[in-house]
Amino acid sequence: MSLLSLSRIGHAFFGRTVLEGITLEIGAGEVVALVGPSGSGKSTIAHIAAGLIEPREGRIARSYRRHAMVFQEPRLMPWATVEQNIGFPLRLSRHPRSTRRAAAGAAAEAAGLLPADLGKYPVELSGGMRQRTAIARALVTAPDFVYFDEPFTALDVALKRRMQDLVIASAARASFAALFITHDLMEAIRVSHRILVLDRLGRGIAGERRLAGDPGARDEAAIFAQRQAFLTGDPLFAHIHELDERLRP
Ligand SMILES: Nc1ncnc2c1ncn2[C@@H]1O[C@H](COP(=O)(O)OP(=O)(O)OP(=O)(O)O)[C@@H](O)[C@H]1O
């Protein structure tokens, strides 16, 4: 059963078409990466799918219970502690303080934060700890669907790798489905079951490739070999490193 279905979605900003004919489906427990060049419309698709933007055309069907979002910037509240930041979605849904504290502690631990971090403020955290806090906040409500919008682009290579492992482990443990937006093909191959490639100008999904095995079960050599195979031998990926802002009419 599909949890998210977009059918012939089209959108324009200020009269300029940025998306046309976007059709995709994501099933329960499936992590789907969406790749494409900068400016091709990946974030706009996620915003439309999550209901943040009303598309100009097309249909959206969501049958998930609850979604969460993780963005490139952790977007933490600077005046609140790690525990309060993580527990914030539960506060919005009026859970009592004791429930919030217990759930925030468990989500923090699952995201690799230490009990001593719970009382810290965002300014005291490293970039990785901030992003771990954002992931814990996303997962504290036990979503069955998560939107990741280039969450690790700003992190260095080693940290990025640890955060990807965190997403893989969390998705397997909590069995949420996800739309994972990235322009890093290694990342897409590492974290997802299936990769969708957006057309260079957002005119439809150019194609998709299903990856062998489950995320987390692939070794680094196989991931690297797959990336090379896609980039050098698969025409679907020929455009993904283009900067389409210069091409777009
Ligand atoms: N709020 C907005 N108002 C006007 N134009 C916008 C807005 N948001 C996005 N755009 C334009 O829509 C197009 C698609 O942007 P979008 O951010 O979805 O692309 P992207 O593939 O996610 O890019 P990147 O990989 O660089 O984040 C771009 O040309 C962008 O300039």
What does this structure look like?
Belongs to the ABC transporter superfamily. This protein has 249 residues and is α/β, with parallel strands linked by helices. It has two domains: 168 residues, Rossmann fold, CATH 3.40.50; 68 residues. It has seven helices and nine strands; from the N terminus they run βββαββαααβαβαββα. The radius of gyration is 18 Å and the shape is globular. The mean pLDDT is 91. The site of adenosine-5'-triphosphate has 13 residues, from helix 1.
CATH architecture of the largest domain: 3-Layer(aba) Sandwich
Q: Quickly give the structural class.
A: alpha/beta
| Number of continuous helical runs | 7
Instruction: Please state the overall shape, judged from the principal axes of the Cα atoms.
Output: globular
The main sheet orders its strands as 5-6-7-3-8-9
Please report the distance between the alpha carbons of the first and last residues.
38 Å
The stretches of 5 or more residues where confidence is low (pLDDT under 50) are: none
Order of helices and strands: EEEHEEHHHEHEHEEH
- Number of individual domains: 2
Question: CATH first level of the largest domain: which class?
Answer: Alpha Beta
Mean pLDDT across residues? 91
